[in-house]
């Protein structure tokens, strides 16, 4: 799949060359990175040349992060300590959720159906994909949550929107992850499964990052759930 890149003040956008977008993936980066972080990975997905998927990579706001000695960096929310509870910055989560809702609204106004919009993210960005996606008022095309965890787990059942109760969720995690422990990912998976959510869990022999088998699985998941069937051998 060939794309053309543009940038506005708050995001990097890859538009499909094949024609007007008929699907969108909104992809949030991890702590301290920016929207450029996963742009180089898109060609590795090897989506069909006929695919018309727009990729949107927002930049998180710059804010002080407590666990990093208050140093200001791009972050979706503050982290006070490296425990599940220490990551539950309610105000920061709410503000970033509102931003993500704005990106979804922008894609909807561009003519993309909500069921053709996927929220994706890595680490903090993956946490935001789960947090925002499960509370969104229209059914989404899916959620991809990489090397992350579910924030505010004790409020999932009461805040989960019925529209996304059946949404397909792909969770991927490295067994050797020492930044977001593998156990945190498993705990989040179990909480969501207990709530009746549709979670597909994959784990890999990698640390806090992605590996080639994981990229292959992400590509296969996108192709299946967005119906990206190659045509004319492309």
Overview of this protein structure:
By secondary structure, the chain is of the alpha/beta class. It has a single domain, classed as Alpha/Beta hydrolase fold, catalytic domain (Rossmann fold), CATH 3.40.50. Helix content is 26%, strand content 24%. The protein is built from 5 helices and 10 strands. It has an 8-stranded mixed β-sheet, with helices on both faces. The protein has a two-stranded antiparallel ribbon with strand order 5-6. It is globular. The N and C termini lie close together (9 Å).
Strand order of the largest sheet: 1-2-4-3-7-8-9-10
The chain-level mean pLDDT equals 94
Ranges with pLDDT <50 over ≥5 residues?
A: none
Can you name the CATH architecture? 3-Layer(aba) Sandwich
| DSSP, total strands | 10
Rg value: 17 Å
| Overall structural domain count | 1
> Given the helix and strand composition, which structural class is it?
alpha/beta
Q: Distance N terminus to C terminus?
A: 9 Å
- Output the helix-strand order: EEEEEEHEHEHEHEH
- CATH H-level homologous superfamily name: Alpha/Beta hydrolase fold, catalytic domain
The percentage of residues in β strands lies in 15-25%
* Envelope shape: globular
* Biggest pleated sheet: 8 strands, mixed
With helices defined by DSSP (H or I, 4 residues minimum), what is the helix count? 5
Short description:
This protein has helices at residues 90-109, 124-133, 156-159, 182-194, 212-225; strands at 3-8, 11-16, 23-28, 53-58, 62-65, 71-74, 117-122, 142-146, 168-174, 198-204. The chain has 234 residues and is α/β, with parallel strands linked by helices.
